[in-house]
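Notes to self after the Tuesday call (sharing in case useful).
The group wants a holo model before anyone commits to mutagenesis around the pocket. I volunteered. Ligand is magnesium ion. Logging inputs and output together so the record is complete.
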Amino acid sequence: MAKYKIAWLPGDGIGNDVMEAAKIVLDELKLDADYIPGDVGWEFWKKEGNPLPDRTIKILKETDCCLFGAITSKPKEEAEKEVSAELKEKGHVYSSPIVRLRQEFKLHTNLRPCKAYKGNPLNYRDDIDLVVFRENTEGLYSGVEFHPLPKEVMDSLLENHSKMKRFKEIPLEDIALSCRIFTRKACQSIVRQAFEYAKKFKRNSVTVVEKPNVIRETSGLMIREARKIAQEYPGIELWETNVDAMCMWLVKNPQNYSVLVSSNMFGDIISDLCAQLIGGLGFASSANIGDDYALFEPTHGSAPKYARQYKVNPMAMLLTVKLMLDYLGEKELAQRLENSIAQVIEEGKVRTYDLGGTASTLDVAREVAKKLS
Ligand code: IPM
Ligand code: MG
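Result:
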């Protein structure tokens, strides 16, 4: 029996292309693992009315971790239009499988490193080394949403909050409500992980990115917990920024920042911004980590128009494999993989179209694999 069992979920669009690239380097590294393929994505939504079938959840439960390609997520109406004719009107409701997986497997921490590798012509600057810690199960992604607003929710809000009064006369079908739910535990956990990371990798600041001047209770809770936790880490400064200003500062002086920590939605937004600073989504890796399980996926989407063309940059996926190896405790393999990736980027000989090259997704993976041996 192999040492590890890894769930293998290519998902939609280019997910398949980049997973093939991942397999090339994993084979070259001779990771002692069995890869168990699982169904997930748009195809299963259309055919089965469920983009994340129960059989896939079962596979994940029987594995050590999961490698995930990419997923297509569409808003409600568009999703409903595409479900197969015999399933229509059966009340299937589309929900993003990746968001569901994060919640069902309690993958509370989304780690998104954004490092400028030397020689990448798309780097905004060469001295950027950011890591985003994004809370991954709560906030605006909690899924507690209403439209129309139920009468009892309206009544209860009117009873409990004076600010609700100005919405009183508006018809319930003209009000939509999405709840931004933060728990103290999740705030503490994400901030603590950011500080632990800073301690381990000798980073001297952690920046908490929220908006407590306006969103007083949720962002406020995060900031208050961050201040308490920071006291346990002398030598690491806690910086507090508002998310809007942070976007400006990241474009102006990204080299001044190191570890960023934020809630789910703001973390989603700033991690795309950070990705663009280091060459775009083609270089942005991510790890969804919980207490008992972890799922690894590049930050990019499924780019359906490029599906199966082997055109897209696999570096985000290869860096994601590196995060998976770190998680499995395969530090030596992880380091070797990162070194090879860095070397291929620096040499600049084998490049995908986003970098002005003509190499395919798999050419890049083979070049990285070659450097491993
Ligand atoms: C991400 C993506 C997802 C998210 C989508 C696909 C649901 O943007 O992983 O950043 O919003 O979290
Ligand atoms: Mg995103």
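Two things stood out.
Residues 184-200 form the longest helix (17 residues).
The pocket of 3-isopropylmalic acid (ligand 1) is lined by residues 71, 73, 96, 98-99, 268, 299 (CB under 6 Å).
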